[in-house]
Amino acid sequence: MTAAPLLPPVATRAHPVWLRVGTLLDGSAGRPQPEANVVYDCDEILFVGIEGRTPPPEILRVGQTSPDFAAPDATLLPGLTDAHAHLFLKGSEIDPVRRAGELRQTPDELLAHARERLASLVRLGLAAVRDAGDRHGVGLALQKLCVQSDRPTMPFVESPGAAIFHRGRYGAFMAGAIEEYPTPRACVEARVAAGAGRIKLIPTGIINFKAGAVTAEPQMTTEELAQLVAAAKSLGRQTFAHASGDTGIARALESGVDSVEHGYFLRNDQLTLMRDRQTAWVPTFAPVQAQLDHAAMLGWDVATKDNLQRILAAHAASLRLAHMLGVIIVAGSDAGSCGVPHGFGLLRELELMERAGLPPLTVIHAATGAGAVRFGYREKFGRIAPGWRSRFMLTRHSPLATVANLRQSRTIVFDGMVFSAGQNEDSTGL
Ligand SMILES: [Zn+2]
Predict the structure, then answer these.
(1) Which domains can be identified in the chain, with CATH numbers?
(2) What is the mean pLDDT of the chain?
(3) CA–CA separation, 38 vs 20, rounded Å?
(4) What is the 85 CA–ligand 1 centroid distance (Å)?
C-alpha cells in the first residue's frame, strides 16, 4: 500500500490551514519537536504548538476542531535559503567556451534568464537566495521585483549589486572597482544608493588549483577593509567578504566583516576568533567539489586532483572544528560557479557539509534559521514560528536520517501554495 500524497489544501488569507505533522524541525538549533500543529495563511505562520498542543479557536474556521491535513509520519521543515549564489550565472554550464558565451549576453538577457531560474527554485524548496554579486544589476532587479506587493511567485532575493574589488585583480565578472570612487566610503555609498541590501567585498583572490594554494597576495589591506566595513555599518548594511587564504582571512576578520565566504585555508585560531566575534562562515564546498567531479572535462591532471582532494579534506576538518567551537555556520552553494547549478547546488552543498561531519540537524539549521537570524534579512523566512513566512517543506523521507533525503519526493508550501517535487528533476539551465 502506498501512503496518501502529502497534499495539504492551499492556504489563503481568508482560509488559513491547520497542519498536523509527526516531526517539526523549526529552523532553530534546537531538537526536533514531536506532534506539532501549525496554522498558517498565505502570508505567515499564525500558530505553532508542539507535543499535541492545539491552536486557539479564534484563528480557526468557525467550528473547526480537527486539522485540515494530518501527516503523522511526515517531517515539516522551513524552506531553504541559499546564502551564496550568483543568479546571473548559469551554474549547470561547465564548458568554458559556453560559459564565456553566457557572459556576453546583454543585461536584459541575463536578467530574463535569472528570473526564470529564480522562479523554478520555488519548486525545489528554496524560500530565499542571498545573491553574492553581479555587475549587471541582475540581482538588484530581482531584489526589487520580489518585494513588490504584486510580486511573482519567486524566492526572496537580497543582492549587494556589484561586489567591490581592485581593478585588475580577481572578481571583474561580478564586481566594480573601488578605483572608480575617491574614497572607500564613496564606493559603499554608491552601492547603497543603487539598492544594495548588503555590501560584498573581495579582499582576496581564489584558489590556484594547480598550485593547491592561494598564490596571489590579498587585494585589500586591513585598513581599507575597515573603512569599507565602517561605511557600510554607518549606512545600516552588513558586509560579506569573499576570502580564501589565511592572510586575507585575517584582514577580513580584523576589519569586522559579518561573514567570511569560502574561507579556504583558514587557521584554527581564526575559527576561535570568528566564534568570539559572531562572524558567520559560509564554507561553499560545492564549487571546489565540482572541480573534482568534472576534473576530466576541465582538464585537471592527477596532481591537481590530489590538490583538490587535500583542500576539501582540510576544509571538512575546519568545518568540524567550527561546529565544535560554536561558530555560526551558514549554507551557501556558490551556485552559478562552474558545475554548481542553482537549487540543486544547495542540496549538494548540504550533502557535502554532512559528509564533512556535521550532524543533519546542524546542516538544516545552517540552511534555514542560522542565516535568517545572523543576517537580519528584510523578510522573515527560515523558521517555523508565528510571524514567519509560510514557506516550508513536508516530507516522509526524514532529513534527519540524511540530508540527501531532501532530494526525495516532497511537498513544497510556498506562501500557502502547494507544489509536489519529485526525485528526478533536471538541472539544465539552472
Ligand atoms: Zn561567489
Answers:
(1) 17-78+382-421 (2.30.40.10), 80-374 (3.20.20.140)
(2) 96
(3) 6
(4) 6
Ligand 1 centroid distance, CA of 83 (Å): 10
Q: Order of strands, edge to edge, in the sheet holding 33-40?
A: 45-49, 33-40, 17-24, 69-78, 391-395, 410-414, 417-421
Residue 243 alpha carbon to ligand 1 centre in Å: 10
pLDDT in tens, 305-319: 999 999 999 999 999
How many angstroms separate the alpha carbon of residue 118 from the centre of ligand 1? 17
What is the reported pLDDT for 293? 98
Statement: the pTM of the whole predicted model exceeds 0.90: yes
Long-range contacts of 293-297 (CB under 8 A, 24+ apart): 293/339, 294/94, 294/338, 294/339, 297/94, 297/95
Grid coordinates given for 385 = 514560528
Q: How far from 11 is each of 19, 36, 46, 390, 423, CA to CA, in Å?
A: 11, 18, 12, 9, 25
Tell me the CA–centroid distance for residue 86 and ligand 1, in Å: 6
Alpha helices in 80-174 (DSSP H): 96-102, 107-121, 138-145
Measure 105 CA to ligand 1 centroid, in angstroms. Answer: 20
Neighbours of ion ligand 1 (CB under 5 A): 132, 334
Largest CA distance in the chain: 70
Ligand 1 center to residue 335 CA distance, Å? 8
* 256: region left, alpha or beta (phi > 0 left; psi from -120 to 50 alpha): left
Band the pLDDT of 2: cuts 50, 70, 90. low
How close is the Cα of 410 to the center of ligand 1, in Å? 29
Mean pLDDT along residues 243-247 = 98
What is the distance in A from the centroid of ligand 1 to the CA of 61? 47
